[in-house]
Every structure is written in structure tokens, then in C-alpha cells.
DNA sequence: GTGGTCTAGACCACA
DNA sequence: GTGGTCTAGACCACA
């Protein structure tokens, strides 16, 4: 469910924060939905459980997640983050900015970057088309 | 010359590493070109000189920069990174990957992301169009 | 494990670089072997931890050491430096050269220098004879 | 007359100090003998004159050299450093120590090191034999 | 416990 | 002016 890159320079717990927020913002994780257990994530990514736990704790403090005695944590009933497209586009601002900064410093044209995004997307699942084909 | 974001989670010296590599890869910094002095960058971004110095030292160890006793550091004669478009597109892979990960988790469609890149680009200089319109 | 001389004119972190490389070249530090922790070395030699850390970081950049999140650094699986006698003799070239330069400028004869090396060696452990006498 | 290595980690002015002391200790530079001018040395080694000047000034402060208005500096009449073999052997102690440290860490035997010194000596002038053949 | 990042500040080597 | 070395100390990320 999560994709963690220990080499990226971004702290692992921060990568987790971002990804949980996005999954909620996108509606993939709906209010009440259970999160994978700390241990599960820790084993799968060969990361210390405390690191996962820290991310979950911060999200709980934010009101995004809820702790349930003896059961997996769940998405809070009314998390701050919400679903409208507008919000979701804002959640991705940082990544856009990083991309544009890199592109400009590499003297790439807009065309070249758009092509690259387009082509890279093809290599992966297209969430949009999946939505369309699911009904 | 550099754009540093202390909030981003990515260590400042790592942001510098990336940006210097890109400026060289794009040809904006040519072999022999001097880099801004450690102090200069430090003052401009209100960052400790040692942080800048660390980035420069690592780039020297990589063979990208050259030290000149008593004078500013310069781009190495034959830095590993070179200019061909192919290479430059590779330099931006990480940023593309980050963007796509975020987009998928936010359930954004390819269309929505391409539009966002397109529109955001308009807010800034377009190196490509500048090149085209200058003759 | 290390012998550091703050008076020698050679920066401390550089002395460390040399010594780690030698210990690996000699096989005393094998691939996977843990290095003494930054704090340990720092306390033992009354040196600032960052100085040790800097040496370790440069050796990591060189591919000689490997970082292990939360655990001591280790010798890389395939460090550039290897064990053959030939290589080890090369690692000592600088020291030989320094010695010969000094000897010539002091107008010492080869005999005098060889005697001095011979005699000085007696004051210390002779790794070779130890190897020979152990069976 | 001097052999300077800017890469060695040892400051250039310190290399100069050592070498002047040795040349005097060995009798190659006798009391009253002129030293090469600051400018001469600076040009020959592509080093800033201030660096040479600094070394000379320190040696003057030590009483090893004497300044002569309008003429080259000379070796002082009674420099501290003197000629007896005993003294000269002491002047080379640091280099011996560095060599032995490296040798032990590389697990080289005394035999191997003596051979290496012997062989390396052959590649260069042998001051001793020169002395013998000069009469 | 491990290493990493950053700061503030002193002082050095070199041009 | 340039960069380099080192310290003391705060705080972070991870096991």
C-alpha cells in the first residue's frame, strides 16, 4: 500500500505521512477504513516498527487517524483532508514544484516534460482509466 | 542561482547537490565556470557556510567540481554528467516518479496532471520558448 | 584501532581516511566488519564527533564503507581496495617517498636509513614474525 | 631545491619549513649560504609568494635564517639545527614513524618494508654514494 | 544505542 | 578575498 524509498533523503516517516494523506484525500481510504498494522508495514519494508508508529501517531495527533484499542487504526470520521478535486490538486503542489524546478535547471522545454510525464504514466496503472472501467 | 527550501524534508546540502548537477547537465554551468562562493550562497539563503561547503566537498569527491586554492571552486573539466538530452531526461526521473506516485495516490487522471504541469509552467519562465524566440 | 596525531599537520579526518583504507587493504577489516562508532572514536581521541563523521562520510562516498541506518557503519561488500600484496605495497608509497625525500635532504645513506627502520621496527610489534611464530 | 606536494594534506609552508631545516641539518646549506628568492620558489612551484615568504619568516623568527636588506636570505651563522648524525637521525623520526604505522596497518613484514626502501632508493640518487665519489 | 543535519564561531592556509 | 578544519552543542531519524 505504501512505497518507501530509504535513499530519497526524505525521512521515511515523512514519506508515510504524505502517502496516508493522499490516499485519504483521494478517497481510496475512506473514513473508518483500517490501516495496515504497524508490524505489517514494518516487516514489508524492512523498517523499524517505531518509525511506522511515529507516523501513525502524528496523523492521530492531527486528527486524521483514530486509534482503536486492540484493533487496527482507522481513518477518522471527519479528517481534515477532504476529497474535492481542488484539494487533491493542492496536495500535489510540492511535487509539481520540484519537477518544474528540476526541468528549468536542466533546460528542458515544457513539451519535453509533458511528453515525459505522458510516457511514464503509460508504464504504470492509470488511476483515471481504472475508475472509468470499473462500473 | 540556487533555490533552497529548508522545510522540504530534503537536507539542504542534498538540494544543493541536485541543483548543481542539473545546472551542469543543462550546460548552464560549463566546465571551468566558477561557482558562487560558499559565503555568498550562505548569506543569500541564510544558511550556515559549512552546509554549503559540505555539498561542494561532496561534489569535489565525485569529480564534478574542482577546488582552486584561494579561488572559487569551478566545474571540473570533464564532469561525469554531460549534456545530451537523454542524460538530462534521466536526471529528472526521480521528480517524475515522485509526481506520479502522488498523482496515483490522489487518484488524479493523467489528463489532470498534464494540465496541472502545463498551467504551472505558464507561471514561470519557459526556457524552451525563450530559446525559440530569441533568434 | 586508530592512531591520531593532531600536531602532524595532516588533518585528522585525512589521517583517518588513510588508516581505514589500510586496515581494509590489509584484511584486518573485512567486508561487513563494523567500524568503531563515531562517538567511540571521538571520545577515545578527544576529537569532535563531526570530524570522525566527516571521514566516514567521505569513505562512504568512495564506496569503501556502507551506512546502516541506526547501526554502526560497515566495510562495503566490495570495497575498491583489495588485499593482494602488490596493492598493499602501493598503499605505502607516499610514506616511502616522504622518508626518502627527508633522507636525501639530510644526506643520510641508504645503510643509515635501513638500519633506522630495522631498529625502530624492533621497538614495536612485528606483524610478520608474529605470523611466522604462531603455528 | 624544494619538492612541494600541494595534494599531500600537509600545508605548503610546513613542507618548506621541514625541507629547509633538513638541508641545513645535512650540511647542504651551510651558514651564510643564500636561499633561493621568494619569487623564484613561488614561480617554480606555481605558489603564491606569500606562502614562501611565510615559511622564510618563521625560520627567521626561529633564528635559522637571516634577512639581508636587498640580498637573498641566508642561513644563520649559528642556527639551532646542527650537523651531527645523531641530530639528523632525529630529524627523520616523524617520517619513520609514519612509515611504520602504515606498514603495520597494512600487515607488511619488516622484510617487505626494508626491501621496498632498498628498491625505491635505487630509483633515485644515493646521497651516500655521491658523497663517496665526490673526492 | 547508531549516524545525520545544522548552527555559531574560532582560526588556518592560500591568492 | 577564497575554501578548510575543528569545536561545542542542539536536535533529528532510525534500530
Description:
- The structure is a homotetramer of 135-residue chains.
- Residues 126-135 of chain A have low confidence and may be disordered.
- The first copy, chain A, has helices at residues 12-25, 38-45, 49-61, 85-91, 93-105, 110-122, 127-133, and strands at 65-68, 71-75.
- The first copy, chain A, contains seven helices and two strands.
- In chain A, a hairpin with a 2-residue loop joins strand 1 and strand 2 (71-75).
- Chain A is globular, with a radius of gyration of 17 Å.
- Helices cover 56% and strands 7% of the residues of chain A.
- With 135 residues, chain A is mostly helical.
- In chain A, strands 1-2 form a two-stranded antiparallel ribbon.
- Chains in contact: A-B, B-C, C-D.
- At the A-B interface, helix 1, helix 4, helix 5, helix 6 and helix 7 of A face helix 1, helix 4, helix 5, helix 6 and helix 7 of B.
- Chain B binds a DNA duplex (15 and 15 nucleotides) through residues 11-13, 37-39, 47-51, 53-54, 56-57, 67-73.
CA gyration radius of chain A, whole angstroms: 17 Å
Q: Please name the two chains that share the biggest interface, counting residues whose Cβ lies under 8 Å from a Cβ on the partner chain.
A: A-B, 52 and 52 residues
Helix content of chain A: 55-70%
Identify the overall geometry of chain A: globular
The topology string of helices and strands of chain A comes to HHHEEHHHH
Strand content of chain A: 5-15%
Distance between the termini of chain A: 23 Å
Number of helical elements of chain A: 7
Class from secondary-structure proportions of chain A:
mainly alpha
Oligomer: homotetramer
Please tally the β strands of chain A and state the result. Answer: 2
Amino acid at each position: 500500500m505504501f512505497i518507501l524509498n530509504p535513499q530519497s533523503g526524505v525521512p521515511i516517516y515523512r514519506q508515510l505521512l504524505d502517502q496516508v494523506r493522499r490516499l485519504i484525500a483521494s478517497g481510496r481510504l475512506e473514513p473508518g477504513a483500517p490501516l495496515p498494522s504497524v508490524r505489517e508495514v514494518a516487516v514489508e519494508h524492512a523498517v523499524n516498527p517505531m518509525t511506522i508508529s511515529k507516523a501513525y501517531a502524528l496523523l492521530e495527533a492531527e486528527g486524521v487517524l483514530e486509534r482503536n484499542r486492540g484493533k487496527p487504526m482507522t481513518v477518522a470520521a471527519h479528517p481534515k483532508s477532504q476529497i474535492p478535486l481542488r484539494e487533491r490538486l493542492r496536495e500535489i503542489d510540492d511535487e509539481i514544484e520540484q519537477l518544474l524546478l528540476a526541468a528549468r535547471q536542466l533546460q528542458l522545454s515544457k513539451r519535453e516534460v509533458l511528453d515525459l510525464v505522458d510516457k511514464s504514466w503509460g508504464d504504470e496503472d492509470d488511476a483515471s482509466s481504472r475508475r472509468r472501467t470499473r462500473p
